[in-house]
UniProtKB/TrEMBL annotation:
It comes from the Bacteria. It catalyses: D-mannitol 1-phosphate + NAD(+) = beta-D-fructose 6-phosphate + NADH + H(+). This is Mannitol dehydrogenase. The lineage of its organism: Bacteria, Bacillati, Actinomycetota, Actinomycetes, Bifidobacteriales. The keyword Oxidoreductase applies.
Length: 464
């Protein structure tokens, strides 16, 4: 029996040996992680003018990704896993990597007139919004960052994304650089308008004179993104080592399907993403609603229900007949409120979820439910209530979230508001837990009664 090689014993993957020359940096990406490296970076890599568009990536908080990619010249192996097998390619579109809090580097790129796009994948939590969609100025990190910028526009330690954007735009204005497009790529309906709102509110709190400049020089685009991309494990490192014969400290595994729909202006140009398959449209809303409700909504349902039944991945959960029937129930309801057909999309989702080679861990998807459920589940629940329709599917998703927090709140659960939502879940006050997600929904006794019923059902019928 042949022993598999220790990946670290092999020659290191490097740009010089296996990638292409680093392109000049013209894109800043905030919150770079596996999804970005499988999605936006892939589209940029496959654009016909890729040699002209390099990405400067900034992590969310940790510098682990920087430490892994920097010795490789910021190239990495993308593993595309279809049911029949894997394919491999080296992605070279990231030209530099930085820790999220490296404000010196961020300002350096913002003042460069050749940098013309800022993209982001910072999750719903990164927008730092309150329940009304406004900048949450009561958030400690937000208030501290705003105070720092009011005191010194060149503040070097900023922890929130809106504040970092404000700092970058202040630097760009001071340098006399002109137009730039900000293109958020988060799973949030109307992400361009949502991001613009919190950034402009941060600007107003720091320096209202910057607002006039941004309205003349900043274009806000919107996008819908889709590609299932699990967290990297040692299995990916071994697969690359055994197949390609090199050590890659940061490979990414993803599915064959991908989609990017973009709406907005790019006054200083953009990569030829459309030639790589991106859709450029005047109305992204139908696409983002379909994705948010059909894919993300069912993902959240599985993320909270699946672990209660002992399942670890999406593929395991969707193979459970009971859980698949619940997902179909959700799709029946959510799909009925879409303005575009969902039949083919739904069939494709089932195929994607069932892919045995994509181990998309449910605990990963379950992160930040307090931020995700209001955009993935709540709108469909409100539509159904307004029409007097069956509400079991959305109520079940929220009930499962509550039971999930009770069972895994001290171990596996992760949420930007974990202490608060865990306390609500354990209090037994279902109405308050629902109200935390949406006050109107929490005030609807028909809905809260159904959630309460399903909380008891899930608590009593699932395995500990």
């Amino acid at each position: 029996m042949t022993t598999a090689p220790d990946p670290t014993s092999l020659p290191r993957l490097t740009r010089a040996e296996h990638g292409r020359s680093a392109a000049p940096i013209r894109i800043i990406h905030l919150g770079i992680g596996n999804f970005t490296r499988a999605h936006q970076a892939w589209y940029t890599e496959h654009a016909s003018d890729a040699a002209q568009w390099g990405i400067a990536g900034f992590t969310g908080r940790s510098r682990r990704m920087v430490d892994k990619l920097d010795p490789q010249g910021n190239v990495y192996t993308l593993i595309t896993s279809a049911p029949e097998g894997d394919s491999f390619e080296v992605i070279s579109s990231i030209s530099s990597m930085h820790e999220g809090g490296d404000m010196e580097a961020l300002r350096k790129y913002f003042v460069d007139p050749n940098v013309s796009i800022v993209t982001s994948t910072v999750t719903e939590a990164g927008y730092k919004r309150d329940t009304h969609g406004n900048l949450n100025v009561h958030d400690t990190d937000v208030s501290e960052d705003l105070a720092k910028l009011r005191n010194d526009v060149n503040a070097s330690e900023l922890s929130t994304v809106p504040a970092r954007i404000v700092a970058g735009l202040e630097a760009r204005r001071a340098a006399g650089a002109d137009a730039i497009t900000i293109l958020p790529c988060d799973n949030l309906a109307g992400n361009g308008a949502a991001f613009r709102r919190v950034v402009e509110q941060a600007i107003e709190a720091v320096d209202p004179t910057l607002l006039e400049w941004t309205r003349d020089n900043v274009a806000w685009a919107t996008s819908m993104v889709d590609r299932i991309t699990p967290a990297t494990t040692d299995a990916e490192l071994r697969t690359v080592a055994e197949t390609k014969g090199w050590y890659d400290a940061a490979p990414v595994r993803t599915e064959p399907f991908l989609e990017w729909v973009i709406q907005g202006d790019f006054p200083k140009g953009r990569p030829a993403w459309d030639e790589a398959g991106a859709v450029i449209t005047d109305d992204v809303e139908p696409y983002e609603q379909r994705k948010l409700w059909m894919l993300n909504g069912s993902h959240s349902t599985l993320a909270y229900v699946g672990p209660l039944f002992g399942h670890e991945s999406v593929a395991e959960a969707i193979a459970d007949p009971k859980l698949q029937s619940w997902v179909n129930e959700w799709w029946d309801l959510a799909g009925s409120y879409l303005s575009v057909s969902s039949d083919d999309y739904r069939a494709k989702l089932l195929e994607r979820f069932s892919n045995p080679r994509i181990h998309h861990h449910l605990f990963q998807i379950a992160t930040d439910g307090s931020q995700k459920l209001p955009v993935r589940i709540v709108p469909v629940a409100k539509h159904a209530l307004a029409e007097g329709r069956e509400i079991t599917a959305p109520a079940r998703a929220i009930a499962a979230w509550i039971v999930f927090l009770r069972r895994f709140g001290d171990t596996q659960a992760k949420d930007v508001n974990l202490d608060e939502v865990k306390k609500l879940a354990n209090s037994g006050d279902v109405t308050s837990a629902v109200s935390y997600l949406d006050k109107d929904l929490g005030a609807n006794t028909v809905f809260t009664n159904k959630v309460n019923e399903l909380v008891h059902e899930l608590s009593s019928t699932t395995a500990a």
